[in-house]
Sequence to fold (116 residues):
Amino acid sequence: MKKLLSLMAMAACLSLGVAHAQDKAAPAAPAMPATPAAPAAKAPTAQQSKMATCNKDAGDKKGDERKAFMKTCLSAKPVTQQDKMKSCNADPKAKALKGDERKAFMKECLSAKPAA
Fold:
């Protein structure tokens, strides 16, 4: 029994030694793929663009005032065309107009930027 255990231990050591030798003989592959020295500039994501716009709009605000402004600015949902239609149609002025006057009013209302 002792001989069998000794032979198994010796075989295990030899097989590990051979496997280790094969690893050293193989050329080492780089851990990280090669990347170009200057990666191409990526276009900013929607969130990054929103952050830049909010930072610009924040201007000279400091401390809690700036924090509150940035929170509301970044969490604001963009106004959809459907929302614009609802607000323009709900305007009492639009209800009083007819024909070409209404058409002109709606065109102006829908093309106007929403109040910030």
